[in-house]
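// run 5 | inverse folding | seed 20
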């Protein structure tokens, strides 16, 4: 048995699909009374497991709790020389790993290609877009709000940005994409679904790839009201491929990804933002705010 004191917990947007039964989620639905899930960072407070020493820092699915008892399975040790402890609940955890494997293994991005990312100022999208640049791709980010668009251009180094605000139809969004991706899009990294997905499909090049990472636009919708996609007919003529991503499929390669990302963070090529609140009681409001698009950066609560 290992007792872990949680230092940082996160309001994880992917948890939304598990509430109320889970629906078509890749994980089972959560029940009333269960501890809310989510990646977190903690410190070993007590240990009866010789593999873990008191004081060690761990990254794991501790969820919304101040202390948890664990067996040690599935934990990742945080190196003592890490550039940031909180990053292990964000860019060096599920969001960053999703961007890394989604772009490289699912999207099969190649140098010289154009990569379009929705929700580009979010932790997953920002990571994916910056890795695209590191790989020699042209990165275009979709976001809303002057601060987010400025950060993507000036800090994260995206080649172009698209303001999502007011583009509420497929044609309107496709027009904005077309203005900055005149030759089309090779890889679309989708975090939102909805009309943005259909607009991206309209702008894809032949043999384009779509990475389905998230569907924020449909998370709060009833099954009968989900938008989905209405442009499947274009997959035939353009020979498009669309594939869902579950980052846990790559668990055996997490160290590869984090080693690469830590290196990029150290040399300044990979930037990240965090939105940190204080205390466990702040997490419900933080969770709702990020689903409304009001949070800029990885939403975290500092618990100790």
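// decoded
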């Amino acid at each position: 048995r290992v007792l872990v004191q949680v230092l940082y917990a996160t309001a994880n947007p992917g948890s939304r699909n598990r509430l109320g039964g889970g629906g078509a989620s890749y994980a089972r639905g959560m029940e009333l009374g269960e501890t809310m899930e989510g990646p977190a960072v903690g410190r070993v407070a007590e240990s009866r497991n010789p593999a873990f020493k008191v004081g060690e820092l761990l990254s794991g699915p501790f969820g919304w709790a101040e202390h948890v008892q664990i067996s040690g399975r599935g934990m990742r040790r945080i190196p003592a020389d890490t550039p940031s402890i909180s990053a292990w609940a964000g860019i060096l955890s599920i969001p960053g790993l999703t961007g890394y494997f989604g772009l490289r293994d699912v999207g099969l991005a190649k140098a010289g290609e154009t990569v379009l990312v929705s929700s580009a100022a979010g932790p997953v999208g920002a990571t994916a877009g910056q890795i695209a640049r590191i790989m020699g791709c042209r990165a275009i980010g979709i976001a809303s709000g002057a601060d987010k668009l400025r950060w993507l251009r000036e800090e994260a180094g995206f080649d172009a940005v698209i303001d999502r605000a007011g583009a509420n139809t497929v044609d309107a969004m496709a027009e904005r994409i077309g203005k900055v991706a005149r030759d089309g899009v090779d890889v679309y990294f989708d975090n939102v679904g909805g009309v943005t997905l259909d607009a991206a499909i309209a702008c894809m090049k032949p043999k384009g790839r779509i990475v389905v990472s998230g569907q924020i636009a449909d998370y709060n919708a009833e099954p009968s009201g989900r938008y989905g996609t209405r442009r499947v007919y274009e997959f035939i003529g353009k020979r498009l491929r669309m594939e869902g991503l579950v980052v846990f499929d790559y668990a055996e390669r997490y160290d590869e990804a984090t080693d690469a990302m830590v290196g990029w963070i150290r040399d300044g090529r990979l930037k990240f933002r965090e939105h940190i609140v204080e205390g466990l009681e702040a997490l419900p409001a933080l969770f709702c705010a990020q689903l409304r698009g009001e949070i800029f950066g990885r939403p975290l609560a500092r618990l100790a």
